[in-house]
From TrEMBL:
Keywords: DNA damage, DNA repair, DNA-binding, Glycosidase, Hydrolase, Lyase, Metal-binding, Multifunctional enzyme, Zinc, Zinc-finger. It catalyses: Hydrolysis of DNA containing ring-opened 7-methylguanine residues, releasing 2,6-diamino-4-hydroxy-5-(N-methyl)formamidopyrimidine. Transmembrane segments: none annotated. Residues 239-273 form the FPG-type domain. Residues 2-83 form the Formamidopyrimidine-DNA glycosylase catalytic domain. PANTHER family: FORMAMIDOPYRIMIDINE-DNA GLYCOSYLASE (PTHR22993). CDD domains: BaFpgNei_N_1 (cd08973). The keyword Protease does not apply. This is DNA-(Apurinic or apyrimidinic site) lyase. One of its GO terms (molecular function) is damaged DNA binding. Its cofactor is Zn(2+).
Length: 288
């Protein structure tokens, strides 16, 4: 799933491609992706596009007083195209969800695609991004000056959930998903199972530094890359996420995994849990 660093890089890449150009046509190919009907997508035809902005993990393609807001979900992506046909794409079961065709340069535009069978990619055409429920409920952005150590301390106070889940909760901190929460917790040397409210002042300070540092470094690595290279860059630079069975880059211990119904987390026992493996209920059931 694209997270804050990839969405930030995509916003910059798309701004360079779209800002100042005119929309020729927008074709909704997967009807399930379109979550609004008023104003219609046709209201964007002939409009001059502006900068592309980010709200958490949402992309906001501006067009005057209208906004085409996209959430890529787990398997969605943005693909810049040149030499696109002017004829409408066929609606079907393929990965194409929406096509935006520019009037200039001719044949250029972007495709929104979604792999797999679960259709969760979402497209909204609105007059205010805050009309999108996911944006209206977003918590503080890690790049907002308001995300201070005191602010994080206040967010965690009384929070009786595991810190892994808190970091992924978009209503608490916007933009962090499964992959970067693993990376942040490894950098902060914290167990993903630790209750957020139980963090000491020193641990909270490490966490705050890990959030801002990890995301800033990821954004800087991704800046300037074309959209097609962002996924590979993210995978290449992960230190623990997706590295099960490999040596920890910090201490050399073997990175372990805990599996859930539809996701998994990775961690280093030496760096994060005092050398103790975390309980994996799925594995425990298999061994019974």
């Amino acid at each position: 799933m694209p997270e804050l660093p990839e969405i930030e890089a995509l916003a910059g890449f798309l701004t360079g491609k779209l800002d100042g150009h005119t929309v020729s046509r927008i074709y909704p190919v997967a009807v399930s992706a379109l979550k609004t009907y008023d104003p219609p997508l046709t209201a964007l035809h002939g409009r001059i596009l502006g900068p592309v902005r980010r709200h958490g993990k949402f992309l906001d393609i501006t067009a005057g007083d209208l906004h085409l807001v996209v959430h890529l979900a787990r398997a969605g992506w943005v693909r810049w195209r040149e030499g696109l046909p002017t004829t409408p794409p066929k609606m079907g079961k393929g990965p194409l969800a929406l096509r935006l065709l520019l009037a200039d340069p001719p044949g250029c535009g972007l495709d929104l695609t979604e792999a797999g069978t679960q259709r969760r990619l979402a497209v909204h055409c609105v007059t205010d991004p805050r009309e999108v429920p996911g944006i209206a409920s977003l918590g503080v952005d890690p790049f907002d000056p308001a995300f201070t150590l005191d602010a994080l301390t206040g967010l965690l106070r009384g929070e009786r959930r595991r810190i892994k889940g808190v970091l992924r909760d978009q209503s608490v901190i916007a933009g962090i998903g499964n992959a970067y929460s693993d990376e942040v917790l490894h950098a902060a040397r914290l167990s993903p199972y630790k209750l957020a409210a139980d963090l000491t002042g020193e641990e909270t300070a490490r966490l705050h530094q890990a959030v801002t540092g990890t995301l800033t470094e990821a954004v800087e690595r991704s800046r300037g890359l074309v959209a097609g290279d962002l996924k590979a860059e993210k995978k290449r630079t992960m230190r623990v996420h997706g590295r099960t069975g490999q040596p920890c880059p910090a201490c050399g211990d073997t990175i372990r995994e805990v599996s859930f119904a539809d996701s998994s987390l990775q961690y280093c026992p030496t760096c994060q849990t005092g050398g103790r493996p975390l309980a994996d209920r799925r594995l425990s059931r298999l061994l019974k």
